[in-house]
Design goal:
Blueprint (H helix, E strand, L loop, with lengths): L1 H22 L4 H18 L3 E3 L11 H9 L3 E7 L5 E5 L4 E3 L5 E3 L3 E2 L6 E5 L2 E3 L3 E3 L5 H6 L5 E5 L20 E3 L4 E3 L9
Parallel strand pairs: 1-2, 1-7, 7-10, 10-11
Antiparallel strand pairs: 2-3, 3-6, 4-5, 8-9, 11-12
The structure holds ligand FFO and adenosine-5'-triphosphate.
Family: Belongs to the 5-formyltetrahydrofolate cyclo-ligase family.
Cofactor: Mg(2+)
Protein name: 5-formyltetrahydrofolate cyclo-ligase
Length: 193
């Protein structure tokens, strides 16, 4: 019963957040703010190989960061979704085509998360104690596996919650990135000024 109620809590939270995203107009300052935060983060960490994702629909916009990363010759690894809810990681240089969902997905030579310095993961909500709520298909929880790289979740500022419902398979994050700030969640996050 306990497990069911957590699943129900997650479901209702997802619904509320997606509805709020849908009702909120695109805000340019958030797109540029997010790029600024992400660029600052990879610059401070000195990350060379970064896993990111192509934002779609009402998600916080990762496009400006991706453009910057390509221009600055960072190695970008991006996920393609598979029907079995696994992710295939590809070396990204800007090419996309529609994937199993309606939105464009990255294409490129297949790679893995090996030697990735930082994973920038999509999320609907996150909490400073390291919890992340995704869209509910478990793609990222499954893809990260064991001993995963430093991982940050991207959300809008109003999607940072004090705590979130989680299950044992949920992978913890190391930091939260919003259009205005970076919130460190774990002790393995490097102490950078
Ligand atoms: N941009 C992006 N790429 C990603 C993810 C993601 O969350 N965002 N994923 C992370 O796991 C994987 C794909 N997972 C997905 C899981 C659910 C839905 C989905 O239900 N989409 C709804 C709209 C939800 C919304 O408004 O945000 C739909 O298409 O109707 C789509 C992709 C891999 N790539
Ligand atoms: N490592 C795993 N192995 C097998 N099944 C998993 C794993 N992680 C999650 N799942 C399954 O995936 C489903 C969705 O999980 P959950 O609600 O935690 O997704 P999420 O974290 O919101 O989504 P995502 O990781 O795609 O952003 C659940 O039914 C869960 O049992």
């Amino acid at each position: 019963m306990e497990q069911l109620s957590i699943v129900e809590q997650k479901k209702s939270l997802r619904k509320q957040i997606i509805q709020r995203r849908t009702e909120t107009e695109f805000r340019v300052f958030e797109a540029s703010g997010l790029a600024e935060q992400l660029i600052g983060l990879v610059s401070k960490l000195g990350s060379k190989k970064v896993a990111c994702y192509l934002s779609q629909s009402t998600e916080p916009d990762t496009e400006l960061f991706i453009d910057w990363a390509l221009e600055n010759h960072l190695s970008l690894v991006m996920p393609r979704s598979n029907a079995d809810r696994s992710l295939t990681w590809v070396d990204f240089s800007g090419d996309t085509e529609p994937g199993i969902f309606v939105f464009p997905e990255p294409i490129g030579p297949e790679t893995s998360l090996e030697n990735v310095d930082l994973v920038i993961a999509p999320a609907l909500a996150a909490s400073p104690n390291g919890k992340r709520l995704g869209k509910g298909m478990g793609f990222y929880d499954r893809a990260l596996g064991e001993n995963y790289p430093l991982t940050v979740a991207v959300v809008f500022d109003e999607e940072v919650f004090t705590d979130l419902p989680t299950e044992s398979h949920d992978q913890m994050i190391d930091a939260i990135v919003t259009p205005t700030q970076i919130i460190v969640c774990s002790s393995r996050f490097p102490k950078v000024k």
